Amino acid sequence: MDATALPAFQAQLHTALAKPPTETRRIFHGRGRCWPGLEQLTADWLKGPSAGQLLISLFKEPEPALLTRLLAMLNELVTTPVWQQSGARSLLLQHRSRDGSPLEVIWGELNASPVVHEHALAYQLSLGKNQNHGLFLDMRLGRQWVKKQAWGKRVLNLFAYTCGFSVAAMAGGAEQVVNLDMAKAALSRGRDNHRLNQHDLSRVSFLGHELFKSWGKVRKLGPYELIIIDPPSFQKGSFALTRDYGKILRRLPELLTPQGTVLACVNDPDIDCQFLIDGMAAQAPTLRFVQRLDNPPEFTDVSPEAGLKALVFAQG
């Protein structure tokens, strides 16, 4: 972080808050490297039914003097008319590089479990306990795509986390959704997300299992017209992207219907789209590449291949 770039960050926040989004959105994405000197900063507007919370995330610990400058800027922000008219409930700073990713309340009152909205769907977040709050905002258009594709389909959601794709699929009229993730606490939050949206839970399954030990159960609940794969780059003891993604791809033909579709995702800046395209050709050659989904415009990256990659493949 560069102190001379902080006025640009301040100006962007002022612009965004002058007319804040009506739903949850990222409003500053320094991680896309389009703002020199601000590469370690992001700002998310977490908007619920009423007030919003502004979450600033700091991905690398700056020098003490620079952190002091940032805090002074944020404390100045909350005194401005733009802030006061924004409807904000709190201003939060998350130190993502520190142990436990602690959350600092700069102003206002923290709502640690806010319900936020995206595309008119509700999701409950968890602030201050984990590095990630429960909804990856760069996948906004991916969830929208799933909602549009899901009507009448059986959907398999691998690495489901808090079931954002599942909520979108059910909202789009999916017949059945199977969520699999080894983190049972995340799946429990996913069940809550479905309840928030008044979904029929008899049509949603939650499997708290390690994927590579559960193929039989996953196959038994299929076949599926739509499979979503959105893994972490690394999950200790269970998954490493470059080592294990191919093991999933080779299973796809036996899990899909003859006209089935796959949304395969990678969010590692060092791995490009070709990794998935080549991997699919080698492991599941009956699936052809169809398209890469756009990323939300607020996640613009100086290198498109460094951002989220969400690729669609289809049988035949």
UniProtKB/TrEMBL annotation:
Membrane spanning stretches: none
UniProt-listed Enzyme Commission number(s): 2.1.1.-
Top EC group: transferase
Keyword Transferase tagged: yes
UniProt keywords, alphabetically: Methyltransferase, rRNA processing, S-adenosyl-L-methionine, Transferase
Molecular functions per Gene Ontology: methyltransferase activity
UniProt entry tagged with the keyword Nucleus: no
Residue span, S-adenosylmethionine-dependent methyltransferase domain: 25-313
A biological process from GO: methylation
Listed name of the protein: Class I SAM-dependent methyltransferase
Organism, scientific name: Oceanimonas smirnovii
